[in-house]
Write a structure and sequence with these properties.
Radius of gyration: 21 Å
Mean pLDDT: 96
Low-confidence stretches: none
Strand content: 25-35%
Bound molecules: ligand EPZ
């Protein structure tokens, strides 16, 4: 297993280009199942999760050529509507084939994803949506077996805004008979991006990006293949913004980041005293002096993203005062805290709330990554720490960050990957 070593204390200076959004690419790759034709995705990041999705589509019977930043899903009618445990256990988002398979083929057998490091993560809201559209759902030996003659349009009211739940049900509704109204939807930019692609395929979807989405279903075979360039990854952009703000003297331009997708983060960074400005299609981050503590509570978009909680919490270890960072989306997303405490961070953890006291001088140590965003936060901590930090189990990182050592290295960071470190 690889590790990443970081020597801290250097301000970051220069430009970094944001890759395409992982959490937009995954559902859009699954949406290719709604058409038999050949679809092309551009600006796709070279990530393990993309490879896993491609392997899943191949298992289902579609040819896939991954040549990042381009992915081509070949034409194909003969699809085996089954997603096995071996693939789904590698990546929960595999559950996003359930809606397209059910809508397109009237049947789907998909392994239940099970829990992950950050929480139980049930899919009851996804299944509730399919049942409202007339599907019968059985759970057998760890698999969801969903069947229907043809899905029919329905009103689906989610108990809570779920990103992949909204995406899965929206894809299913695109081929259901009649109209659907989805209420209490997730409003994330990735949901909007999926609706943009579905409409490009010929679907009729209104309201994506708001909490009510209207879908008029098309007939089988009416959805066409697409050629689409994916939006930039706002979470990757936010990660580089926090990395830049860790050390005084930093001046970084995050190219291709859309500031309107990061308003909650930008607001908090400005409140802390970090200089954040827009430069054309980019965001400029400057840390010119000490920063102050601010409180953060994660929430569904447009609230503060849970996927930025760990990275921002690390920034608050260098801020003057006490910051209260509360995680409300996932029940177990504070695993980075004990690792940061090993780096001399002063954090009191009470359930899903961390009280961060600063500023402290972080000290380098060997630390363990537990999930994707926690691993990014440990790299960021290493950028400001005294001495060397070794982040282990970086396979988590490779799921969501393309060439992170090269990108940070180009900004002046002292960082290297150690192959097969343990
Ligand atoms: C998406 O996960 C993202 N993943 C996550 O990013 C992100 O953290 C999350 O949305 C929240 O923004 C992808 O888009 C592939 P949810 P998702 O359904 O859709 C509960 C990353 O770091 N819930 O919006 O799985 C759930 O347990 C990843 O890139 C139910 O109870 O998240 C959670 O507490 C991590 N029943 C809350 O809702 C359901 O049926 C929000 O989860 C569905 C969800």
């Amino acid at each position: 297993m690889d590790a990443i070593r970081v020597r801290g204390g250097k301000p970051l200076v220069g430009k970094v280009k944001v890759s395409g959004a992982k959490n937009a690419a995954l559902p859009i790759l699954c949406a290719t199942l709604l058409s038999d034709g050949e679809s092309k995705l551009r600006n796709v990041p070279a990530l393990r999760d993309i490879e896993t999705t491609a392997a899943l589509l191949r298992f289902l019977g579609r040819g896939v050529n991954v040549n990042a930043p381009e992915v081509v899903v070949e034409a194909g009618k003969d699809v085996r509507p089954e997603a096995p445990y071996e693939l789904v256990k590698q990546m929960r988002a595999s559950v996003l084939v359930l809606g397209p398979l059910l809508a397109r083929f009237g049947r789907a057998k998909v392994s239940l994803p099970g829990g992950c490091a950050i929480g139980a993560r049930p899919i009851d809201q996804h299944l509730k949506g399919f049942e409202a559209m007339g599907a019968t759902i059985k759970l057998e030996r760890g698999y969801v077996i969903a069947e229907c003659g043809r899905l029919r349009g329905a009103e689906v009211c989610f108990d809570l805004p779920t990103v992949t739940g909204t995406e899965n049900v929206m894809m299913a509704a695109a081929l259901a008979k009649g109209r659907s109204t989805l209420v209490n939807c997730a409003r994330e930019p990735e949901v909007e991006e999926l609706a943009r692609v579905l409409n490009k395929m010929g679907a009729e979807i209104d309201g994506a990006g708001t909490d009510v989405i209207h879908v008029r279903g098309r007939e089988q075979g009416e959805l066409l293949p697409f050629d689409h360039a994916i939006i930039p990854d706002r979470i990757e952009a936010g990660t580089y913004m926090c990395a830049a703000a860790m050390n005084e003297g930093s001046d970084v331009i995050v190219e291709g980041a859309e500031i309107q997708d990061l308003e909650a983060l930008v607001l908090k960074m400005r409140q802390a005293g970090v200089e954040v400005s827009t430069e054309g299609q980019s965001i400029r981050i400057r840390r010119t002096g000490p920063i102050r503590s601010v409180n953060v509570t994660t929430a569904p978009h447009p609230g503060f993203p849970t996927d930025m909680q760990a990275q921002f919490l690390v920034l608050m270890t260098t801020a003057k005062g006490e910051s209260v960072v509360s995680e409300t989306i996932f029940e177990n997303r504070m695993m980075h805290v004990p690792e940061l405490q090993r780096m001399n961070a002063d954090i009191a953890l009470r359930g899903n709330t961390a009280v961060v006291s600063g500023p402290v001088k972080l000290t380098g140590a060997s630390v363990m990554a537990t999930d994707l965003r926690a691993s990014a936060s440990l790299i960021i901590a290493g950028l400001a720490a005294e001495g060397e930090t070794e982040v282990r189990r970086v396979y988590h990182l490779d799921r969501g960050y393309e060439h992170i050592e090269a990108k940070l290295g180009a900004l002046g960071a002292s960082i290297e990957r150690v192959k097969g470190a343990m």
